[in-house]
Amino acid sequence: MADDTDDGLPTPEEDPAGEQLPLVEVETVLTRKPSRRKRLAQLGLVLLAGIVALVTFRGTLFPQRPLPLAQATPTLDLPLLSPALLILSNLTYGSIIVNGRKQQELAPFFVPLAGETYDLTLIAPPFRAISCHVESPPLPAPGEFTTSSRAGHCTAIRYASTASIGFKYLHGVYGDPRMLITINVTADDLPPDQWDQVTSLLTQTLTSQQETTVPQGQYVATSASPDGSVTSQRASEPLQARAFIAPGIPSLQLASACSEPICPAVLSPYTPSFSLPASPLWAVEVPMGLRWRFTSASGQVVGEVSFLAERFLAVFLSYDQKVGWQVLQQEVVPGYDTLQNQFSAVFCSAGFQLLSSLQQSNSFLEIEHDHGIAGCEVSLQQITTAQPITTLDLGHFVWRFGALLAADDKAHALLPSLPIASPEEIAAVGG
Predict the structure, then answer these.
(1) Cis peptide before 83 (omega within 30 of 0)
(2) Rounded to an integer, what distance in angstroms lies between the CA atom of residue 282 and that of residue 430?
(3) Which string of b and e fits 54-64 if b means at least 16 CB within 10 Å?
(4) Any residues with CB less than 8 A from the CB of 86 and at least 6 apart, and which?
(5) pLDDT in tens, 213-228
(6) DSSP readout, 327-380?
(7) What integer pLDDT is reported at residue 99 of this predicted model?
(8) How far lies 53's CA from each of 48, 146, 268, 277, in Å?
């Protein structure tokens, strides 16, 4: 990879919005509005991805395997709605009308599950009114847990009659949801001037630069190939390391969940520690990319490497007619992390993705320690099939300064091409 000069890299003082990733300018990533035809096609992908995200990629938001009814039934003496329809949205204000009846509660809330069709309308300025005509998905076949369908901005998931995802207490009622409908509010639903304000705000808020020092003798990434492999080398002298985090182009895996620069987030009451937001908000997700740049004491660029976005940042925005849109920096929905903590997790996500090809049906990757810009330790674990079920350690890896290293003999045996981490590098990312 050819080295760039410092002319193309303004400092934060020169560019308040922050650095730009070399593949596509940050401003372009967020503000480039796709054509109407492309937006319609992408919207279908986003909404369909909502189903995939709810069922497949967000196991912590909804139980991946519903409980038998006997295990799910609550014992508290409280109002019970069963079977129930759970209405979700990534917007927590406005009015929702279900089958002609305006609801008193804000999403998420329960309504009785009755009939096979549901007409929903969400009215929440400055967004345009959103309407969906949803037909219930068919009952899952024996051995299946869910079926799903999509109608405009809405996705529907239906659960098997013999199982439950668990009772949940919302707005004074215990609900037993056998179906859920999510109303996805996107940036395309804003007027053009609101679109511009939101994208500019997210560009400024979500662009971050951090600096650290690479000790002499430790590995740094020098380049990356299109297939995702990284070339690294040991630093012959202490180096200045700059890491730029900014809205980026999603990787293929991330784009399978959402290919837009601003995506609907999932506000699920099944998120651990979830409680209803205290203030009205719009929940979105933004794909974040990472760029490393290493320079010597004389200013020579030793290495520069960029990684496609491998992680979404959950962002909560509030709207006021007088002041416009604002990003809520601190934790506003229990169960969701602050932006600062999410920024720190971006560093490890690129290395985690490089190792994902090692996962098999009975193995998984686990982040043992995450130290943000200093790097992280990732282990590969295998679940045994014999009783008693246990996990086997298949190797530990170090992800530091954009370089992937083997931390033990097991990891090096799995990936012999990886450099071996020094004791100092292991200690830097350990507990």
Answers:
(1) yes
(2) 37
(3) bbeebeebbee
(4) 108, 109, 110, 168, 175, 177, 179, 180, 181, 269
(5) 999 999 999 988 767 7
(6) E--S--STTS--HHHHHHHHHHHHHHHHTGGG--TTEEEEEEEE-GGG-EEEEE
(7) 96
(8) 9, 13, 12, 22
> How remote is the C-alpha of 285 from its chain's centroid?
6
Residues of the chain with pLDDT under 70: 1-78, 226, 331, 431
Q: What is the pLDDT of residue 30?
A: 52
Which amino acid, one-letter code, is at 372? G
Half-sphere exposure of 329 (CA within 13 A, CB side): 5
Q: Is 45 helix (H, G, I), strand (E, B) or coil?
A: helix
- pLDDT given for residue 40 in this prediction: 32
* Distances 188 to 216, 238, 268, 318 between C-alpha atoms, Å: 49, 47, 22, 17
| 116 contacts 110 by C-beta, under 8 angstroms | no
CA distance 372 to 403: 14
DSSP 297: T
CA separation for the pair 49, 68 (Å, rounded): 27
Beta carbons of 135 and 149 less than 8 angstroms apart: yes
- Calpha distance 336→343 (Å, rounded): 13
* CA 58 to mean position of chain CA atoms: 9
Give me the pLDDT at residue 15, please: 38
**For residues 26 and 290, what is the distance between their CA atoms, to the nearest angstrom?**
12
Cα–Cα distance between 56 and 36 in angstroms, integer?
Answer: 29
Please compute Rg for the chain using Cα positions.
Answer: 24
Give the number of other Cβ atoms within 10 Å of residue 276's Cβ. 16
Query: What's residue 78's pLDDT?
Result: 65
H-run or E-run covering 87: strand 80-89
Q: Is pTM, for the whole model, over 0.90?
A: no
Distance CA 170, CA 86 (A): 10
The CB-side HSE value for 371 (13 A sphere, CA atoms) comes to 16
Cα dihedral 370, 242, 250, 192 sign: positive
Q: Which residues pair with 101 in a beta bridge?
A: 98
